[in-house]
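Record type: ASSEMBLY
Status: queued
Input:
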Amino acid sequence: MTNLLVFPILLPLVVAVLFILARVRDRHAGTVAIAGALAHLFVSFMLMARVMEQKVTVLWVGTWPYPAGICLVADYLSAVLVLITAVIHTAVVVYAAKDIETRQIKAGFYPFMQILTAAICGAFLTGDLFNLYVWFEVMLMASFGIMVMENPAGRLTNAVKYVALNLLSTLFLITAIGLLYGLTGTLNLADLHDKAAGVENTALFTSTAMLMMTAFGIKAALFPLFFWLPAAYHTLPAAVAAFFAGLLTKVGVYALIRLFTLVFITQTHITHTILMGAAMLTMVSGVVTAASQMDIRRILSFHIISQVGYMILGLAIFTPLALAGTLVYMVHNIIAKSNLFLVGGLIHRATGTFHLSHMGSLYKTHGLLSAGFFIPAFSLAGFPPLSGFWAKLLIIYACLESGHYTAAAVAAAVGLLTLFSMAKIWLEVFWKQTPPKDPLPLPKNYSAWMMAPVLCLCLFTVLLGLFMEPVMQLSLAAGEQLMNPAAYILAVKGGG
Amino acid sequence: MESFLAIVVGLMVSAAFFLMLSGVLIRFVFGLILMGNAVNLLIFTAGRLAPVNPPLIGAKQTLLAAPAANALPQALILTAIVIGFAMTIFMLILLFRTHDQTRTLDADQDRFILETDKTDLPDITGQKVQE
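Status: finished
Output:
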């Protein structure tokens, strides 16, 4: 079963084709999508088990030898991210089955979601730079499709911004790929690692690194390239927003981690210092802008930006502990953030609005929903013993250990401001009395099937916090693996 | 030859950026197309230029004739062109439909901006801001 690596990519694609060929458009659509998502979850789990056993597993597609062919590689980082993608995909599809309307199904909601999942897994698993570009394009196309699925006034101009900026970042990416190929003559990531040390033209090499950083910085929503994100995300349906918010920026973060631990490691005093600055500014600008917002989805969107800053900070510090912190942070954040967007959708169903000043009293009428918000929100803010506390602790500890005291102070302060935003939502939505001229929250205006994924993700957040030790061990192993890529390179070469 | 192509790529990219920064979205698309072509030319140049044979294996041979061109950049460019086509067409249709809604493609005009932020405007009438 060396072909295991291809299933997380192939399976959703097959389901998507099934959807289109069989014209599944009625009430069975949700069931088929859930079945597809569960199967995907299963193969991702198998892949995770395989990687736990072998540390790195490689599949050469076609019979081309190293380094000419395209390979799929799964190390700890990739496998964990594929698994978490499958988890979120399942949760979102279960939620969407009751939330999505017939016209959205007719517009191709489910096939697009499946293709998007396949593309995200493809980006996580590929061992070839050009292949990474192709997966990014597939991902973009699917996300464009979902974004313009239905077009009430105002949605399309936001989609234009998203599409335009992403196309531009793609052009930067392929420019950087072209330059890198000119410098090294290879596109295989493991081979690039070997050849990078021998590049004589370090100026051009560093420029290429910066171009790559800009390209993925746009996708990961780094400062100052994040303006497309709140504009695009806050008008999407809850299920879609949850999927996008949890995963799309993280693919950019993953690409940055992969490239800046494997390829661009010869000029770290330039590249990683710039990453450090960008990370700190991203954290601060995201959280400060969020504080001034009054729409739930806009607050959450700006917090995505600030959280991406933490992950990049871990990469910029560039020690095994910091990279372990980044991985824990990604896992924690993907779960909590997707969950919060789902909760946002439920709040909208109960109150008919996303605007904080028009709602209240939800704590009195929706106890379970309050718990569903409380856990991910205060995990995001870093309350012990929830997962966010450990993630922040690891990053800050890594900062202190490596002597980056300013960064540690910024990270701690941003955590405090996150708490402010979450407490604001908590006070306005759940504790405050409903304003007199606004309608009271409607009880039970959503199906239990929409509540179930929210509670499951809450459970993950709590469990992740309570059983941090094994997660930490795995993350430390992943951090070691990223800092010393010898095993990765040996596996890629050996598989050729 | 390399320096000549490098200058051409540079000129194309600067023209593309000039178009993209104009604020009118249809010019943005033209800029995007121009830049796509510039990048393709860059990849082609990065694959080294030399007066050699095309990378084709003859009828009764199993190997390439000795000095052959690099086939990989050509494959990369072909992929990039195909993807670029799809993206450009999608962008054009998106702009067409946006124009239906806003009656303008000038991103600096009020109609374009207000349409975008309608859901964010503060509530002054006492009515709920509905989607």
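Annotation: Chain B has four helices and no strands.
Annotation: The helical segments of chain B are 2-20, 25-46, 71-102, 110-117.
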